[in-house]
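User: Need the bound-state model for flavin-adenine dinucleotide:
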Amino acid sequence: MDFDLSGDQRLLKESVDRLIADRYGFEARRGFMAEPEGWSRANWARFAEQGLLGLPFSEEAGGFGGGAVEIALVMEAFGRGLVVEPYLSTVLLAGRLLEEAGEAALVGRIAAGELLAAVAHVERHSGWNLGDVATRAAPDGDGWRLSGTKSVVLHGDSAEQLLVTARTADAQRDRDGIGVFLVAADAPGVARRGAATQDGQRAAEIHFAKTPARQVAFAGDALATLERVRDQVIAALCAEAVGVMAKMHAITVDYLKTRKQFGRAIGEFQVLQHRAVDMYVALEQARSMALYATLMAGEADARARAAAISAAKVQIGRSGRHIGQEAVQLHGGIAMTMEYKLGHYFKRMTMIEEMFGNADEHLERVATAESIL
Amino acid sequence: MDLRFTEEEIAFRDEARRFFREDVPEAIRRKVLEGRHLAKDEIVRSQRILNARGWAAPHWPREWGGQGWTPVQTYLFQDEMQQAGVPAPLPFNVSMVGPVIAEFGSEAQKRRFLPRAANLDDWWCQGFSEPGAGSDLASLRTKAVLDGEHWVIDGQKTWTTLAQHADWIFCLCRTDPSVKKQEGISFILVDMRTPGITVRPIQTIDGGREVNEVFFDNVRVPRENLVGEVNRGWDYAKFLLGNERTGIARVGTSKARLRRIRELAGLELRGGRPLIEDRRFREKLAAVEIELKALEMTQLRVVADERGRARGKPNPASSILKLKGSQLQQATTELLLDVVGPHAMPLAAQDEGAGRNEPGIGPEYAAVAAPTYFNWRKISIYGGSNEIQRNIVAKAILGF
Ligand SMILES: Cc1cc2nc3c(=O)[nH]c(=O)nc-3n(C[C@H](O)[C@H](O)[C@H](O)COP(=O)(O)OP(=O)(O)OC[C@H]3O[C@@H](n4cnc5c(N)ncnc54)[C@H](O)[C@@H]3O)c2cc1C
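Assistant: Bound-state model below.
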């Protein structure tokens, strides 16, 4: 057992931490969000330069061969900075799926910062279940045509290529008959509408009307591959959440030391000290489970992996809710304002709690699996 | 003992129910039930409908339009109002400044302000909190100095809810800095159009504009706008804050929210089945309903007990109404998040504040879920935070 970072990992951590500290201040972030796409192209170029966009991909595909630990280091820093660029959607979701499909050329372009891509899987009534797909793919000559509507496609409004889940066969909720299709965002029959998300990121609703598409091929079952990549994304999201929670805790502790009421720092009230301690307990439990998720993300046994990832998501969801609500409460009114940084962490945390299934949904997965102990 | 109300009480409840549902426009009530924001004119319109019936301020003294209801009637009235989605008459008017003026104000003040407050001809806002004086309200620093026939006010208030709509603000001001802090505060009424007042909006995390900073720079207010006696403002503020004992739990509001959540959980599918059929979800919903029923029973015990109590001597159980009531209101917002799932994420940005104008993604009802969750965190902060409530209860039960 060894929880130490390697030399390279330490260097990566230092450089990403520095990048966020230097470039991602509260005011700067507000500026990024005000840009036309809701995030900063300049940051994206910078991420490419620092090798972050190719981090998870194999070296053959133009990447740096980073694993879950490297991704977690980046995501935790992104959590502290509340990064709004489409890293999760383009690199960790679409990029990794394309890599699984052997689409080396597209992966190389993502790594170089030349291509934005998104995965369109959520539908009006699917929840986060990847196997609940109503969108249909019909054969058309050598290719396919897609019809259906995808919802809450993360950063789907700026993506140039879309990876869309659709059914070639079987009923809406069968595990079989699901394929992943590549669609150019400007292909005929694509209509999309972007919206900000509650946490200042972006999402889109995308309609497909007999849209020409190419199926991407996986070595194994498409749904199983999707689920594996999704689990890796959840592990990354857990790391991001730790960054978000750690910040909320630090900001709150700072505030307890400086805010004065009744002639003393409010942190002198023992009841608030205990609340800060409980937040800390929640944070450390979350940090541990995020680490567990990171180390289990590559587990070959799909069932063990899924249970571990779900367990982490439950812990993250519960710790996040607790820390977020307490951070707001212990601040009082100031936390309710856009002008103060805390609320933005609270909102991001709330969205992470929801993303790819909330704590209840994942609890069910853990409860119905073999014990994780 | 009997859980049932008397026949007269039931008749009263039915009358209130009919009135709320028939006389208050459905469009306004639906907005409230769906958790959408009301425009100023909708709040005004609704209050005037109530006032025309004599029901905007039923708890005021009879000579100023009060109804002389029993505690049970007051409870039934509020419960029906909340369940029907009727916006509560503006609390700053009818629960705060109104009762203070009625109790401590001069005859001239009563005549001038009370009818207009009941009819929402004047919109009042509450100028208590300051940047440095939140929970420790008595440390407030905005000062008022007598200069001939005028008070001259300098300082700053903050978190002033809906000051942007307000015609008047009731302020706590320091009028004697040399005495114990609670003993040098006065209660002064200020016309918002007086020169020297600046209102700056504060955007809340849900994107809304409901609170403001209010700055006072050499604001001259006629001397007669002092309420009661000079340096007695703290007593009036305590009277004001303790005034509404039962409505604060907002059990009716939570009931209406849970009803709505049941309805929406019937529309949202998980695994092809309505969420409301999901056992896990139903258990979670039931758990909140149980707590709410317990709170409702507590509230009824307080109400029943109030019949025999002197004014100003609340039942100790009443202090938990705000504590538990706020937690349950907040719990309903979390349930709604669960119901809408991924569609909690998109933001429907239709106001200029967001810089964009995008309608959001997914069903309209999903768009309010996250903003309401964010916004309702305030309920455990304002009006005496839940920590301060616990301090009060602790004092009562431990005696230290
Ligand atoms: C949306 C909103 C609307 C509001 N509207 C109005 C309005 O219209 N008019 C108005 O005058 N005010 C209004 N307020 C202000 C509100 O009353 C204050 O926010 C509240 O009194 C808390 O003060 P504070 O925000 O300064 O927090 P603080 O008092 O600084 O409290 C910070 C934290 O410390 C805790 N704390 C403080 N003292 C103690 C203690 N002794 N023991 C244990 N814990 C303690 C608090 O509970 C809180 O968790 C509003 C607030 C909000 C959020």
